[in-house]
Design a protein that fits this description.
By secondary structure, the protein is α+β, with helices and mostly antiparallel strands. Among the domains are: 282-436, Butyryl-CoA Dehydrogenase, subunit A, domain 3; 445-583. The protein has helices spanning 8-18, 21-27, 35-63, 78-87, 106-119, 121-140, 143-155, 279-315, 339-369, 375-411, 422-430, 439-452, 457-472, 479-505, 508-541, 548-565, 568-576, 581-584; strands at residues 66-68, 71-73, 158-163, 179-182, 188-198, 207-214, 227-232, 244-249, 260-273. The strands form two sheets. Strands 3, 4, 5, 6, 7, 8 and 9 form a seven-stranded mixed sheet that branches. The chain has a two-stranded antiparallel sheet with strand order 1-2. A hairpin with a 5-residue loop joins strand 4 (179-182) and strand 5. The radius of gyration is 24 Å and the shape is globular.
């Protein structure tokens, strides 16, 4: 298994020098988030990830979860690591102080989540989903519900889940059939079966709080008739076992250390969260958090696979450099000298580091939304998150999976062998393009609902951010980035208007263009963040830094991204503008017969 090393220097560069975290914390009123405290938290989080979680990653993959008589046992060491995590106060980092939380910014908790997730994705999902449950309760729960559940979820004594999917409905939640019937005491009887519930049953916490979508008896059909409920595994008033049981756990391609459960609700006692029939709206608080968490998985896969591939490329000897021996004392050169190996490594590096900046930026917008910022600042932050969340989720999982596969490729045949751990990263990462909405669903959300649905106004919030950056940073060294970035963001708005006109004549144009539109958007978005990193590096180099090599590597990686990765956007533009006809022309029977 690749030895995970927390990329502390890269993280601090992104936080402070690129995104201005110190100014951001002051702006949102997070007085306690001073540089000394933040650095200490990140350093200790890195140690926990390296020393406790990373060694369990392969164990989780090989041992998996065990299911016997409705009970799930997590892999050896998982439960003990979770106890250390809770004892260390990590779950409460960004929690509300009135419920025992430390009240630090959500964006800081995201940094710790990156460390945890990269070290051991399967393990990280157990506490990870609890955070979404807390956000949903905080936003829509009654004061009584908050007093009942928030403290235990904040401390990590209890964990949470998100229960949406049923066998007949995944993306189309309007088809769900789980029922909720009112009891005399105001609670509800929840009946139905939910599938694909990550961390739905386990032995790591005292209780599991399920956030469940279900229908009331008089609910209208479709998504307008869905309500949201809290359904604990253990009833909190009397400690009795609720009527929710695990029917089985899935046998999966990857993330073997996390229990993906089938949950049966047989008249389980639950409590309504938020207004009746508005459950989907309430659940989006959970889902949007989960989408950014899934984006983090794509970035984490790129980082973990890059670390493994880089170490191997420096040690593995094969052939000589085409320009002549680089290691004449050795029988062959290390493969890192070969251009194609460098292509793969730099692709991984550019995705991981660019993705980190994108995710941190998104979570900082979330900080603003929950701060004392002005209404104007909150409107901008919400608009930016609205556009960037589907881009981050889909683009970073697609490119993160690409990066994971490149890591296998660097190892050659050894990459296919389990003992090296590179193929596990590929298997664990593949799910990220599926859950919390597939790439196609994220693309429809971005182009159809967000961009065209707002007549382009949401996109303009982000292109204005890029415009201001290009206007203010057009120095001689930066022109190599500013010129293509300016061209792309102007083009982005132009063909978006053309797609809107095409969609007015034929709605199929939206679905036909959406995935390529999202990927174009992703490449341009990462180009913006790489430009900001290059700018920060140039500024550091002007100040007689002792880290010249570090900052030069940022500029050189930015140059690689612009010359080798950003050109992919042109291909996606050509495809999306080719129209829906080449997809829809074939009649169903013309696809061929299956005998």
């Amino acid at each position: 298994m690749p030895e995970y090393k927390a990329p502390i220097r890269d993280i601090l560069f992104t936080l402070y020098e690129v995104l201005g975290a110190e100014q951001h914390y002051r702006k949102i009123g997070a007085e306690d988030a001073n540089r000394e405290l933040v650095d200490a938290i990140i350093t200790e989080g890195g140690k926990f990830a390296e020393e406790v979680l990373a060694p369990l990653n392969r164990i989780g993959d090989e041992q998996g979860c065990k299911f016997v008589d409705g009970q799930v046992t997590t892999p050896p060491g998982f439960k003990e690591a979770y106890r250390q995590y809770v004892d260390g106060g990590w779950p409460s980092l960004a929690g509300e102080t009135r419920f025992g939380g430390q009240g630090l910014p959500e964006s800081l908790a995201t940094v710790v989540n990156e460390l945890v997730c990269t070290a051991n994705w399967s393990w990280s999902m157990y506490p990870g989903l609890s955070h979404g449950a807390k956000l949903t309760l905080s936003e829509y729960g009654t004061e009584e519900q908050k007093q009942t559940y928030m403290s235990k979820l904040t401390s990590g004594e209890w964990t949470g889940t998100m229960c949406l999917t049923e066998s007949q409905c995944g993306t189309d939640l309007g088809l769900l059939t789980t029922r909720a019937e009112l009891n005399a005491d105001g609670s509800y009887r929840i009946s139905g079966t939910k599938i694909f519930i990550s961390a739905g049953e386990h032995d790591m916490a005292e209780n599991i709080i399920h956030i469940v979508l279900a229908r009331l008896p008089d609910a209208p059909a479709g998504t307008k008739g869905i309500s949201l409920f809290i359904v604990p595994k253990i009833n909190v008033d009397d400690g009795s076992r609720n009527q929710v049981t695990c029917g089985s756990i899935e046998h999966k391609m990857g993330i073997h250390g996390n229990a993906t459960a089938v949950l049966n609700f047989d008249g389980a006692r639950g409590h309504l969260i938020g207004p009746p029939n508005e459950g989907l709206k309430c659940m989006f608080t959970f889902m949007n958090f989960a989408r950014l968490g899934t984006a983090l998985q794509g970035m984490a896969a790129a980082e973990q696979s890059f670390q493994g591939a880089l170490a191997y490329a420096r040690e593995r000897l094969a052939m000589r450099s085409l320009a002549g021996p680089k290691y004449p004392e050795q029988p062959a050169d290390a493969i890192i000298v070969h251009p194609d190996v460098r292509r793969m490594l730099l692709t991984q590096k550019s995705i991981a580091e660019g993705g980190r900046a994108l995710i941190y930026f998104c979570t900082m917008q979330g900080d603003i939304l929950h701060s004392t910022a002005t209404e104007e600042e909150k409107v901008e932050a919400e608009a930016l998150m609205s556009v960037l969340t589907p881009i981050a989720k889909a683009f970073l999982t697609e490119t993160g999976y690409e990066a994971a596969n490149l890591g296998m490729q660097v190892f050659g045949g050894h990459g296919y062998i389990a003992e090296w751990g590179m193929e596990q990263i590929v298997r664990d990462t593949r799910i990220s393009m599926l859950y919390e909405g597939t790439t196609g669903i994220q693309a429809l959300d971005l182009l159809g609902r967000k961009i065209l649905g707002s007549r382009g106004s949401l996109l303009r919030y982000f292109t204005r951010v890029i415009h201001r950056f290009c206007r203010d940073n057009n120095t001689k060294g930066m022109q190599q980035f500013i010129r293509p970035l300016r061209k792309h963001y102007r083009e982005w708005g132009g063909f978006t208007r053309k797609l809107g006109l095409k969609a007015m004549r034929n709605r199929e144009e939206v679905g036909a263009a959406s995935v390529d539109y999202l990927m174009y958007s992703g490449y341009v978005t990462l180009a913006y963040f790489w430009a900001t990193m290059a700018d920060a590096a140039y500024r550091a180099l002007q100040n007689d830094t002792e880290e010249t090599a570090f900052y030069e590597s940022k500029i050189k990686t930015a140059r690689f991204y612009y010359q080798r990765i950003l050109p992919r956007a042109k291909c996606h533009k050509e495809i999306m503008m080719s129209g829906a006809k080449n997809l829809m022309d074939l009649d169903d029977e013309q696809f061929g017969s299956i005998r």
